[in-house]
Design brief:
globular, 112 residues, two-stranded antiparallel sheet, alpha/beta
């Protein structure tokens, strides 16, 4: 799994939570450009991708990843799912999890 978020504290927390629940985190990225680069280099099966990044939109990154390396993308945000309207369904992401609800079990359920 690759964790993409511009907040180091969220990346560290997500890594700790997910690794404690058996997930293998292969890398982290802090912005759109490094997310695309890391995904191409690391070939993760899953990318946990923040919707709002400092240099781009998570929806756009999701589409780039889908066209190149095909990891399963799960979008995350501190905002509610409803704030993004149909953008989530229109994306190639497998789903969305609010940051406050992130857990290994929630992620596994979404990826089934």
């Amino acid at each position: 799994m690759l964790i993409v978020d511009d907040h180091p504290s969220f990346r560290a927390t997500a890594r700790a939570v997910l690794e404690s629940e058996g997930w293998d985190v292969v890398g982290e990225a802090e912005d759109a450009a490094s997310a695309i680069s890391a995904a191409r280099f690391l070939h993760p099966d899953v990318v946990l991708l923040d919707v709002q990044l400092p240099d781009g939109d998570g929806f756009e990154v999701c589409e780039v990843l889908a066209s190149n390396s095909s990891p399963r993308v799960v979008l995350v945000s501190s905002r509610d799912r409803a704030d993004y309207g149909r953008c989530i369904e229109a994306s190639s992401a497998v789903g969305f999890i609010a940051k406050a609800e992130l857990s290994g079990a929630a992620l596994a359920e979404m990826l089934e």
